[in-house]
Amino acid sequence: MSTVLDSLLPRPGSAPDRLADAPCLTPAAKRQRGAQQRQAKAQSLLSSTALLRMQETERKRIATDLHDSIGQSLSALSCVINKGLVGISQGRTQVAGEMLGWAAVQVKAAILEIQRIAMDLRPAILDDIGLIATLTWFFREYRTLHPDLALLSEIGLEEAEVARSLRSHIFRIVQEALNNVIKHAHASEVLVRLWRTKRELHLEVADNGSGFEFRHDELALTDGYALGLSGMRDRAEITGGCFRIVSVPGKGTRICVVWPLLLP
Ligand SMILES: Nc1ncnc2c1ncn2[C@@H]1O[C@H](COP(=O)(O)OP(=O)(O)OP(=O)(O)O)[C@@H](O)[C@H]1O
Ligand SMILES: [Mg+2]
Questions:
Q1: Which domains occur in the chain, in start order?
Q2: Atom of ligand 1 nearest to the CA of 187
Q3: pLDDT for 25 beyond 80
Q4: Protein residue whose Cα sits closest to atom 19 of ligand 1
């Protein structure tokens, strides 16, 4: 079921062209229409480039995850099963039993790892309980795991006010931003805010940690940084949002995304 805001959100290439039906256009109106069309084309191009980049990044992450975790677990599993088989063929049932025990542990670990990767790809609870409840759950887990960091949250809207198409992207951006705070910021406080105005939906994750030197040009984001920041930027862009980072060394970092809502 789509929400009211799904239809209000701009889609790449579908900017409203209110002048299209006008029977006769003044030169100024023609220029305005041309500018609108060029802007829609540029947005569409930007979105598809960001989408391809994001897919490629995610493929890399999945490949690494599969290789490093599942691949290792299955190799270990194959090894203990072989030892177990040798034990059986030599009538050493105790060794074979021990190996089977190890195999069971490896299988359990692999199942947990697959669940983690699946959760990383798409948190199932987002579909089941919605964005706000998923964020609340994630914040709770985060606070338990990092008791020395004060995580504050201000969610100033209802579930139905967030377009369905945006929900998993918002969750992923928050998840990556909060993971970065743990990995890099050495902060004592982080604040996550999600709210909307009449025209825009806003997301902010701000910490009071170490901050970093950040060059806000396209090249820096794509080449100079790892996958996390560019992934957040790509998620913002493919959904028609605008991504900004403000970071001051010694003071902290603020990640902001603003999605425009089209007025009816
Ligand atoms: N909140 C933050 N505070 C301080 N430094 C940060 C913060 N977020 C990002 N950084 C800096 O920006 C760099 C790039 O972050 P990014 O998320 O792209 O990569 P990563 O976290 O190192 O790796 P990945 O996200 O791909 O696992 C980090 O290595 C870190 O130096
Ligand atoms: Mg990161």
A1: 1-121 (no CATH), 124-260 (3.30.565.10)
A2: 3
A3: no
A4: 226
